[in-house]
Protein: Bifunctional oligoribonuclease/PAP phosphatase NrnA
Amino acid sequence: MQLNSSFKQSEKLSLKTEPHPEDGEIDKEAVEVPFTRPSLPPSTGDSVTFYTNQRSNSLAFQKSEELQKTLLAHQHERHLIILQDFPDPDALSSAWTYQLIAQQYDIKCEIIYAGTLSHQENIALVKLTNLPAQRWTQQTLKSKDLSSYQGFVLIDNQGTTSQLLSCIQHANIPLIAVIDHHSLQAELKSEFVDVRPYVRATATIFTQYLQVGLLTLDSSIAQHVKCATALMHGLRSDTNRLMQAQEEDFMAAAYLSRFYDAQLLNAILQANRSKRVMDVIERSLKNRIVQNNFSIAGVGYLRYDDRDAIPQAADFLVTEENVHTAVVYGIVHDEDDELEVVIGSLRTTKLTLDPDEFIKEAFGQDSTGRFFGGGRTSAGGFEIPMGFLSGSNENSAYAKMKWEVFDTQIKQKLLRLVNPKDNPIQSE
Structure:
């Protein structure tokens, strides 16, 4: 395995990796890494852009080298790739790319999530590309022999949005790698960490890994074409159709353009909204209140499988005239486990509003210090377990009363930030 560069080569740096005690002799040529350091810019006019690119390229090389060392130390193992409970295209495509990279080191990875795929584009992505992601419920975990796994990986999350994490940790499976573009949620005790909050998509990070040679894409291999298409979708979705993309995102998209299938991506994007999603959007329009350019809407109870209707409703509400931020939330009911959780999504076009800070300040932390939510540029989300109050909604009067209590409390917490001087319960 050799890392390579698409830039003009000016010098080479050898990646020296200590042999893993169980691996025996490692071929020294297999870890020779051509390293490119760009030459000085010809003029000073573009110096800021140049040095920004130079720093980004250098970090991509550095992290790729570190990841290669980590993978070499874990050859012939079985790992779990844990995604957030409701994975998006960025998470799914990045996890698939990691799986393909790890295969070269005879590391078998299983991509798992605890929630469901309910967004029509996510369902289409998995079905049309045969993306190998599996749903593992708490019941599934009980039937698995977790001792057969030697490590786990967190991609596009840091464990705070996965129900599976506590069980995996309880089984004493070590954390091998964390690769994410969200703000740091907690101190991570992992062998490899690549967390870049300033990067718009985790798919961009993985595309940079591909660019320096951790995996050489081949247009004649159908799986590579589908993975590149998934990465392009992940990058596109997390940058709001590239409208909020930065230079490194465009460079990643340019690289993927050599390999992805435009017709396949179009088929994924053309997936129709279900009637249930349209009903939730209609409810959000009916129930919304607008104050100080914030649109806030509670949509009541939703089935577990319809959870992704909430971010789609937020995407819709933020397009209203004189609205720069939309928050939509509801109570999602999991009939299998009789659990309920308040789930919400935030979308914003206001450049000075940090979704991560806003959500963390609004909802705070639980008793263990875990934040109920967070975000990235232009988007965020929160999940608040209902605990003792979960389930038992057969009595419609009780269910209505329970929703009104949570609806009022959430509005109060949000409007305390939106209208700090006003009575947060009152609305026009």
